[in-house]
Amino acid sequence: MLIFLQQQETEMLKLLEQLVNIDSGSLHKKGVDEIGNMLKQQYEALGFVVRIKNEREYGNHLVIQHKDALDPQIILLAHMDTVFPEGTVAERPFKIEGNRAFGPGVIDMKASLVTLLFAIKGLINAGHHSYKNVKIVLNSDEEVGSITSRPLIEQQAKGKKYALVMEPARKDGSLVSSRKGKGNYTISVVGKAAHSGIEPEKGRSAIEELAHKIIQLHELSDLENGISVNVGLIEGGSSVNTVSDHAVAHIDIRIAEMDQAESLEEKLEEICATTDVSGTKISLEGEINRPPMEKNKKTEALLSVIKEVGEKIGVTIEDTATGGGSDASFTSALGIATIDGLGPVGGNPHSEKEYLEIDTLVPRTLLLATIIQRLTKN
């Protein structure tokens, strides 16, 4: 299979260039659907059936499995959207410099879309029927929290034994064996406006109230136990000489274990149950929208198999934990053995300096194909 994939590297790069040079930000439905249609044609040419789940606001999602598949035990997850707005490609299209490829979404995760497709091609070419043992879900809103695709992922994952998630490998090549859970909350404060020079005593400052709450919220962080609370965005007031009558804080919360969620939410509600500035009112909205991906016995067993596969083909496998979220959290929360970071190696995602290490395309494609083959035997 290695020789076949080496012969396909030029084709892999051609497809990658095509994908990168299509704007497919999460809110650019036309571009995401163009990516989906390209990949649909590629998989159908290999004998796969592609079902489309239509969406109005976001791009359509694809559910893919071979026409002869009966009960696939492996689910593969990848996303087609990026964080970049329409017009980014015109400013900095795909390019290659030395061993690195650059462009919007090149590593997160258009290179993974390529390696996933060519892993299937490699299995077909080698005559390994394990390509019938996979179900692939390509979603279109991962970068904004998998708002519409989460129910689809959870539905398609039920009954599966393994979940392989195609987020890129870390810069050092490590796979991801655990991720923090993530929540988003909003605190809104209503105060009473007044002129800050003429009659400040008649005002009730929403900003002052929010300032008290921000300090209390940040004190909830417990980094030693994997809990972080960050007020990352605030807004409020109408003018510098007016006591503010409104203020809003947007909060990002990360947890290492799902058991931490309930007590943390209780503390949030307790903070917002009373005011420090009399005459102001507070409302709290939000939820934990991604459960943590916890490294459990099932994950460790799957990781052990992957390390054996890596050793067999000459790819050293290490694993790591990360605070970032992905769709791996959903399959992990269902009790499915889940490993993430199975895409190629690169770095600086979500930035202008995002890159792919080109010489990892073939080895990581071979690794994925061999993992699928090995898991099908188990």
**Sheet of most strands:** 6 strands, mixed
Mean pLDDT: 97
Question: What is the third-level CATH name, the topology of the largest domain?
Answer: Aminopeptidase
What is the CATH architecture assignment of the largest domain?
3-Layer(aba) Sandwich
Task: State the end-to-end distance.
Answer: 20 Å
Helix content: 25-40%
| Inertia-based shape | elongated
Order of helices and strands: HHHEEEHEEHEHEEEEHEEEHEHEHEEEH
How many distinct folded domains? Answer: 2
Strand content: 15-25%
Question: Helical segment tally?
Answer: 11
**CATH homologous superfamily (4th level) name of the largest domain:** Zn peptidases
**Count of DSSP E strands?**
18
CATH class of the largest domain: Alpha Beta
What strand order characterises the main sheet? 1-2-6-3-7-16
Could you please describe the fold and organization of this structure?
- Keywords: Carboxypeptidase, Hydrolase, Metal-binding, Protease.
- Its EC number is 3.4.17.11.
- With 378 residues, this protein is an alpha+beta fold.
- The chain folds into two domains: 2-180 and 292-377, Zn peptidases (Aminopeptidase), CATH 3.40.630.10; 181-290, Alpha-Beta Plaits.
- Helix content is 35%, strand content 25%.
- The strands form five sheets. The chain has a six-stranded mixed sheet with strand order 1-2-6-3-7-16, with helices on both faces.
- Strand 1 (48-53) and strand 2 form a beta hairpin.
- Helix 9 (297-313) packs across helix 11 (361-377).
- The protein is elongated and about 80 Å long.
